[in-house]
């Protein structure tokens, strides 16, 4: 069980000069209080740097070490920093010192390449050699499982991915969980036995070739083994490639997540660009149609003048028609002196006839012709006016105009949106962003191809195995002096391999059950919701909250996610062969006071040593003291000296 | 009418206004815009008249291939003593001048579809 005894810092982050923190080795919790920007995350990073030589920033991005040295010191020309950890493990006392200093001859370093990192590990006062130190450190705290010991809220959020076995993050965490639970011990043994089994099969095949009656079968079997070996090597290569592709995909996924907002902008801008092109085409088509329609649109302006002119012409037409008709009637009455008037059917009186004569005397044939021509002229004009009546085309014209207007408005809106996004993207390296995306897509394709390739290879290996077994059975029947010994060897390895194969499955199942039971126990202690009864584990160690009526709770808040993740980490600590301190940075930021109290109270049940980095409002000292009582082993405060200088002091209030 | 014009022109001062009208993109040619300007002048109540100093722009055959514009002008201006194409030239120039005076505020849409006609 790893326990940290002391942390010594020199010019690390805001911790100027040499400063130290001592931790109790008795079971319980040490709390370090510090407001924002005082150096809580730097303390977590100091421990991370000591163990793994790296420092992480937001989004789990590796930070440049050049920027980690104390700013006040660097402004005075003193560069570099050092962290020393004292810890105990299995009754041995270790001292790990890791330093980062400018390379020899470099006075003013400007980036990480100007620094050199050195580390020393001593055990019980004896300094270890570099190789031994590295092996020992990897044994004590492998970096792959550091997430269960050193974490913050951001890391807790990642456990959500365990519920989705499709994500690479989920797969990676799942692998890390199996690592901390010790599953690799069994899987490595199984792989070794598999190799031994293969070797023994091959030896048997060689032995069979030494005997006349089994020679042919032995030869055939050896060939099958050779082919199977080639396939296995191919499969292993594919598996390595797959692992590499998955790591690459996960890294790209992470990079994309960090730049999610920018990528979304980029996508949006691409969509807007496409839409602008479509709108431009649509507008151009409608514009041409509108221009064509506008060639005759001028008549649409003339509705009113045409109406008025037509009205006047119709009056003229009526007058001329009346005049012509009157003249015709008078002429008929004159021609038929005794006939009746065609209108009133009365006999025309002599006085009336006289008036007709007078009237007709003033009208000549030429007048009649003029009237007819005048009427024809009026009718031509009326026809011309009717031809130019613009009303019928006006609605079609309006539709076209509206379509162009709409397209222009649409274009203006989209363009303004596009311009706004372009402005936001001004300082962004678009090329790199696009490359990340295309690389990610390529990685997905590559993974798919590799997975299919592996499935095919495994199927082929199965076929070779079946063929080899057939020959093996025939050999078994034939037997032979030297074969018996090799057969026994092969049977032993084969049985052992089967045993370990079954053991891996059983152990995993048992672990899952134990982790589920412990996580549920922690969850019941932590949750404030009485209707939540348990946590259910899936194959990837993802945990689902179960309601007391047995149903799953399908969605949970970020706060609930943190609670569930803490339950999982607690359960893993309870079941792992490798155990150590839990060091958490601002774990209660998303939690209400009741959950905070529950978690503080339950923390000592999760592991022996817990170090909390909190700000006062997140975990008031009185609550911590009340809930932890004797389990509270130490209280420290990060005290501001300046914006670039914080001191570690024991909390006295 | 035998003295009517065979060509129609635009004055040098109106040429820029006509080009501006076309540049807005609603008309495919200066002739379409000029006809629109003519209609605008008629609607605005410009009476009969003639233009001096117009520079030849179009042949009447291009402006009015079927003679319908001529008939229309005769119908709209029955009392006019000015020949139809001479009148057309005058009305075009008057219309362009009036539209040009509106500067950038020229809104062909509002002329075609006044606010009183609700937009569909």
Structural summary, described in words:
The complex is a heterodimer of chains A (653) and B (120). Chain A is α/β, with parallel strands linked by helices. Chain A has helices at 40-52, 71-75, 130-140, 153-157, 168-180, 183-209, 215-258, 260-294, 303-335, 350-361, 365-387, 391-424, 430-478, 481-526, 558-575, 593-606, 621-628, and strands at 3-12, 15-22, 28-33, 81-89, 92-102, 115-123, 126-127, 150-152, 532-537, 543-547, 582-585, 609-614, 632-642, 645-650. In chain A, helix 6 (183-209) packs antiparallel against helix 14 (481-526), helix 7 packs antiparallel against helix 13 (430-478) and helix 9 (303-335) runs antiparallel to helix 11. The longest helix of chain A is centred in the last third of the chain and has 49 residues, at 430-478. With 120 residues, chain B is mainly alpha-helical. Chain B has a two-stranded antiparallel sheet. The radius of gyration of chain B is 14 Å and the shape is globular.
